[in-house]
Amino acid sequence: MCGAGRYERSEGRQDTRAGSHEWALHTKAGEVKLKVPKLRRQTFETAIIERYRRRESSVEEALIEMYLAGVSVRRVEDITEALWGTRVSPGTVSNLNNKIYAKIEEWRQRPIEGDHPYLYLDGIVMKRTWAGEVRNVSLLVASAVNAEGYREILGICEGAKEDKSGWWAFLRHLVDRVSQCSPTMP
Questions:
Q1: Spatial separation of the C-alpha atoms in residues 140 and 121, rounded to whole Å
Q2: 121 or 85: which leads in pLDDT
Q3: For residues 45 and 152, what is the distance between their CA atoms, to the nearest angstrom?
Q4: Is 7 contained in some domain?
Q5: Quick one: DSSP state of residue 181?
């Protein structure tokens, strides 16, 4: 990046070294201390680890999965300390969940493209813990077989129960996403 070797003087030199700083990265194996070089004029970035990244992506995925499985934020803190030797703050868990919920919503709102000759609708009742209370929650699921013969999940909607109004709203949502692609849809 400097355009010259260590202590080398050359016309092509673009920058000079300015020491290094320590960076802590949380991995599945625990905390790893990295020595990151600094440059005087440029910003040093590696191809392996994103800048400002504090945790390995597999660690973030594990945190999200724990929370989505119903583990409380406080319990997630205790588990991470036991597994990796460092506590994860409630704010970190909340930020990760906001990221995943944004991706889920983006997926839910994506346009439905292509032909789907077969459509399957099903309701799945699952138990969900909310504020210490266990409740039944219905998931309305629309899956289809596309023109190439592959199964595809078109949409999932969480509802209080499987009833006419819940299915009507879910199907209306699916039709709106199809009509985003095809202006001839009614």
A1: 7
A2: 121
A3: 38
A4: no
A5: T
Indicate whether this model's pTM tops 0.70. no
Give the tens place of pLDDT for each residue, 125-159: 888 776 677 888 889 999 999 999 999 999 998 87
Question: Is 82 buried (19+), middle (13-18) or exposed (0-12) by CB count in 10 A?
Answer: exposed
At 170, list the tokens: 């879910």
Distance CA 27, CA 33 (A): 10
Q: Which two tokens stand for residue 12?
A: 């092509």
Kindly state the DSSP code that residue 29 receives in the 8-state scheme: T
Give the residue carrying structure tokens 């799945």.
124
The amino acid that residue 84 corresponds to is: W
Return the number of other C-beta atoms located less than 10 Å from residue 157's C-beta: 18
Residue 31 falls inside a structural domain: yes
Kindly compute the dihedral angle of the four CA atoms of residues 27, 29, 35, 41, in this order, to the nearest 10 degrees. -20
Q: Is residue 58 part of a domain?
A: yes
Q: Which domain holds residue 122?
A: 111-179
Closest C-alpha among 35, 42, 36, 34 to residue 16: 42
Q: Are residues 76 and 155 in the same domain?
A: no
